[in-house]
Amino acid sequence: xxxxxxxxxxxxxxxxxxxxxxxxxxxxxxxxxxxxxxxxxxxxxxxxxxxxxxxxxxxxxxxxxxxxxxxxxxxxxxxxxxxxxxxxxxxxxxxxxxxxxxxxxxxxxxxxxxxxxxxxxxxxxxxxxxxxxxxxxxxxxxxxxxxxxxxxxxxxxxxxxxxxxxxxxxxxxxxxxxxxxxxxxxxxxxxxxxxxxxxxxxxxxxxxxxxxxxxxxxxxxxxxxxxxxxxxxxxxxxxxxxxxxxxxxxxxxxxxxxxxxxxxxxxxxxxxxxxxxxxxxxxxxxxxxxxxxxxxxxxxxxxxxxxxxxxxxxxxxxxxxxxx
Length: 324
Hints:
Layout: E1 3-7, H1 14-21, E2 26-29, H2 46-58, E3 62-66, H3 73-77, H4 82-99, E4 103-106, E5 118-122, E6 128-133, H5 150-171, E7 174-177, H6 197-206, E8 212-217, H7 218-221, H8 228-237, E9 241-246, E10 249-252, E11 255-258, H9 268-277, E12 283-286, H10 304-322
Parallel strand pairs: 1-2, 1-12, 2-3, 3-4, 4-7, 7-8, 8-9, 9-12
Antiparallel strand pairs: 5-6, 6-11, 10-11
Helix pairs in contact: 2-4, 4-5, 8-9, 9-10
């Protein structure tokens, strides 16, 4: 059965207790915080990761996914120092293997990560969500490092995978590629390659391995296809879905907004049925929730109260589907 998790920061917060009270037993974590590090430690070293893992376990959570990355922009751009950045990824994966943390969620977005043009778009009942309008980006300046082509990104990704996949195979850690957010190219002159079903298949075929797979971030994949359950089955039949972000949007890659989990363009019940049909028994977490009354929009998309609604909605879908 699919496992419901929540992204929990490495330091205990009230969200830890709220998630536990909502019935969540699995954690998606980041990298260790400075308090975990001695003078000689790096966040991807064994002892900091051990201390972080034990902290989750002490609160009753199993740490199943690390969804944070050491610096990788030089590697993505093929710049001097890129191989040293890949060395840190290899160290992280080796230590995850030693500690039994089975999935690393990574991405290949250069210069900037997920991007929104608004973090306060009005939604249901006065809640607010994030949104993106590419028309507002047409006059945006290029990034500091300048344009980079999609061909160059495919070249650097191939080099990265040829280095990292053998390490992950030996460690028993699965690599779950997150899509570009938004799945649109270029933005500010920067190519974006993880933006279509065809490109994700190209990723899987680039360096074929049982440990090379996908983070099925539904909010991005539903902007790539009108039939998300079919996409889940396509990649699921290959055994390539390692991790799920369960969220929804309304619109197109050029102009969209996040939605409540029950109010977007996607048939979420059909998606849950697709995960059951492919036998997915990994971790799913809610993502990018609305900010609701009484909560802070300081970290837009990650308010605590909105996450509680999402967890309850997902638990209900899971109960209904697995009872069928």
